Amino acid sequence: MSNIEVRELKKEDYGLWDELVKKSPHGTVFHNSNWLTTCSDLLNKKLIIYGCFKGDRLVGGCSLFIHEKAFLKKATSTIRMTPYGGIVLEQLPSGKVRKQEQEYNNIIKSLREFALEHYDYIQLVNSPDFIDVRPFTWNGWDSRVQYAYYLDLNTDIKKTCSRDIKREIKTAIENGIIVKKLSDASLFYDLFSMTFMRQNLKPPVTKNFFEKIIQLLDAKQLGEMWIAETPTGKAVSAQIILFDNKRAYTWATGSHRYLGRTSVWPLLFYTITQDLKNRFKEINLMSGNIQRLAEFITGFNPRLVPYYVVEKSSHIFRLYQKSLNIYKKLKK
Was domain 154-280 assigned CATH 3.40.630.30? Predict the structure, then answer.
C-alpha cells in the first residue's frame, strides 16, 4: 500500500509548490504557480495543481489544465504558449539507484492512478530534465519524444556559430542595428503578429495576453523583453526571454522583413546571450520540433535535448474519438 497521498493544492499551498519546483531538477518557469495562474486566467482554462504528500512533506506533483466537453474530462499539462509541464519530483540524494527509482516510482504510481480515476484523457508534456517515463509506459501509457536545443552560454558563440550566422551578425552591426531591453507589449505584439501573418496564420494569443505576461515577468523577475531597432529607432525584431533558477528560455519572438533577405535576429540573440552568460549557464532555445526552425537554430551550434510526452485515454474516450472521426468523414 502506498504511503503517498495525492490531493489538490489550495492557493495557500502554492508557496510550497513553488519551493518544490525551485528545488526539483524537473521544475521550470512553466511550473511556477504565478505563470500557471496567469495563463489559466488569460486563456480561460481551469487549473488544478496536484500535490503528492508523504506525511506533511510535499514530495512531488503535477499541474493540469482541465478541459470539459459533454460528459468527458480531459487534463493536459500544457496550453498555448506553455510548452512544458508535467511531473515535478523532489530531489533525492544521489547514491543507490534502486532506492531512488523505487521512491520516484511510488510517487508516480500514486499520481498516475489518481489521475486515471478523475479524467478520461490525460496528456503530460514533461520538461527535458524528466527523462524516465518508464513508470508510465510500463503501465500502458503511450509515449513519444520531442526535442529542444540547449546552448551553453559559456561558449564563445562567435567562434562556434555557422558562417551564415556570423555574416548576419556582421551585416546587422554594419547597418547600425541597436539592441536593448524594453518592456513594451504593444510593440512586441505588432512584431509577433507580423511573424504569423507572413505565414497566413492567426496569432495564438492576443495583445492583452502579452500585456499581462510582461507585467508578470517584470513583477516576479521571471523574464525580460529585448528589441533590435534601426538607427532611426524603428523596432525590427523582438524577443521575450524567460528564466528560472536553472536556465533561460527563448520563449516568444517577433520580427518583420528588413534589409532584404538579411535577418537581424542573430545579432539580437547574440547580444542577449552576452548579457545572460553572467547570470545563467545555459539557455533553452526550444525550436527542435519544426524543421525550418531547427535548421536555423543549429547555426548556433547547440546540443539536441529530448523531452517526453505521455498520454492515456479511457475506453469511453476512445469510443468518443472513434465516433467523432466517423462523423467527420460522413459529413465531408
Answer: yes
Neighbours of 127 (CB within 10 A): 26
What Cα–Cα distance (Å) separates residue 250 from each residue in 6, 53, 189? 33, 33, 16
What pLDDT is stored for residue 259 in this prediction?
Answer: 44
Q: Per DSSP, which regions of the chain are E strands?
A: 5-8, 46-54, 57-69, 72-76, 86-89, 121-125, 142-152, 178-181, 223-229, 235-243, 248-255, 282-287, 303-313
Residue 211: the pLDDT is: 98
In which band, very low, low, confident or very high, does the pLDDT at 257 lie, cut at 50, 70 and 90? Answer: low
Q: What are 45-57's pLDDT values in tens digits?
A: 999 999 999 999 9
Residue whose C-alpha cell is 503528492: 52
Answer yes or no: are the C-beta atoms of 119 and 75 closer than 8 Å: yes
Q: Are 24 and 90 in contact (CB under 8 A)?
A: yes
**Mean pLDDT for the stretch of residues 111-135:** 96
CB 126, CB 24: distance < 8 Å? no
User: Comparing C-alpha atoms, which of 149, 148, 127, 124 is closest to residue 137?
Assistant: 124
- pLDDT-derived band of residue 260, with 50, 70 and 90 as boundaries? very low
Every domain of the chain with CATH number 3.40.630.30 lies at 5-146+307-331, 154-280
Nearest Cα neighbor of 258 from 191, 180, 185 is 191
The Cβ of residue 120 has, within 10 Å, a number of other Cβ atoms equal to 20
**Strands 121-125 vs 72-76: parallel, antiparallel or unpaired:** parallel
Question: Strands 72-76 and 57-69, how do they pair?
Answer: antiparallel
The CA–CA distances, whole Å, from 285 to 120, 168, 200, 299 equal 33, 19, 24, 12
Domain 5-146+307-331 matching CATH 3.80.30.20: the answer reads no
CA distance 208 to 111: 35
Mean of the per-residue pLDDT values of the chain: 93
Cα–Cα nearest to 177, from 132, 126, 237, 217? 237
Distance CA 192, CA 188 (A): 6
Q: Cβ distance 34 to 81 under 8 Å?
A: no
